[in-house]
Amino acid sequence: METAIKEEIASFRSDSNNLFVFFMAVLTGAAAILFKVVTKEISAWFGAVSIIGFVLAVFTLLWMLKIRRNIDDLIDELREIK
């Protein structure tokens, strides 16, 4: 039981790390596109892509927070076992 919980925690941490990299990439891309739109280097239509990127970043952040809550719950469960 204890090793299964530890493996699950490791899996969640790996997922969290991967999502963080994805989150930062999407956020950086969305900010770069928004900057290009504001400075009028590209068409304003790309602003929609930037907004979609920011929305995707918010959902990714919420997903990361859910994973963090799951990790915390598993750590509490592991403490109760010991």
- N-to-C order of helices and strands: HH
Alpha plus pi helix count: 2
Separation, N- and C-terminal Cα atoms: 11 Å
Strand content of the residues, in percent? under 5%
Descriptive tags:
single chain, 82 residues, mainly alpha, rod-shaped
SSE topology:
Elements: H1 2-38, H2 46-81
Helix pairs in contact: 1-2
Can you describe what's shown?
There is one protein chain. By secondary structure, the chain is mainly α. Helix 1 (2-38) runs antiparallel to helix 2 (46-81). The model has no long low-confidence stretch (mean pLDDT 93). The chain has 2 helices and no strands.
Give a brief outline of the structure.
With 82 residues, the protein is mainly alpha-helical. It has 2 helices and no strands.
